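ligand=protoporphyrin IX containing FE
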Amino acid sequence: MCHVLAEVLDAVLYRSLRMINQIPFLSKLPFWKKNILDNGAETIAKFVDKIISDRRHGHSNSMSDGPDLLDLLLSTVDNEGESFTNQEIKTHALTFVLAGSETTGNLMVWIFYILMTHDQVSKACQQEIDQVIPNNIDELTNEHLSKLVICEAIINETLRLYPSAPLFIRRCIHEHTIGTEENQLNIPVGTDIFINSYILHRRSDLWPRPLEFDYTRWLRDTKNDLKPKLVHPFAYLPFAAGSRNCIGQNFALLEAKIMLAMLVQQCHFKLIPGQKIIPEVKITLRTKYGLLANITKRQI
Ligand code: HEM
């Protein structure tokens, strides 16, 4: 299934970047990886149908302590007592899996790439975690997590240099004219605009020393605990913005902080030398050839 998903994501990206998916007439023609998209979509739909049907008939259970997302989707009713249809459950479940797994997974890869290549960052991170989190703890509490300010800053800075979802599209609903008097650009209603946060986050007019990994730019004010103000409200868009921004952003940041804290507390990571680390966009921003590390248990 992973192989099919990867192929479909690849086809979606190929078609979106060539504007094929955005033009209804072109999107129906049997070219440009359309067969991969159609066959893949069918395979994935069957796979998810089976998961839903197994859960409905009690052949599978939530693997967490309480109900999982699928249980919630199956049991939710609206004000009129109507449940979600199978199609709606399938769409929501798939959206959450697709939007929530590769993005956070790739964020963790980039965080560990930074830690393994930036000694000072790694030391500061480990020191903070060792200070805040007792060795024998089973579960992190909110109190522990809110004290991990360096971890928070490292996550923010990693998402600046390596935003895991670097491309998103917005459609213009009011005509706009942007640019300078000599160099004006008119954007008519209906224009699809690709926003590239990878480039946005590296703009030297918005970020001092834009290519340098400097987590201290995100450290909160020690007196009032406020985050530093951005030079422009839309200078930083790892989770997009507006009414269709990432619904899972708070969950993702919390999940990333917990994983970072537990892994750094328990393990030692060393980059295997001689690797080419090249960022590649396949819907999400990943390392083209993976990231190999030696992981050993820390003596604590
Ligand atoms: C580091 C992790 C994550 C990043 C960088 C990220 C980024 C984004 C971005 C940029 C969008 C906007 C896409 C667009 O407008 O086309 C988005 C949408 C979305 N994300 Fe995330 N995301 C992350 C994690 C998650 C998680 C963990 C979940 C779910 C548990 C999630 C669920 C969603 C959903 C459902 C949408 C669509 C919202 C809508 O259209 O109204 N994301 N995400």
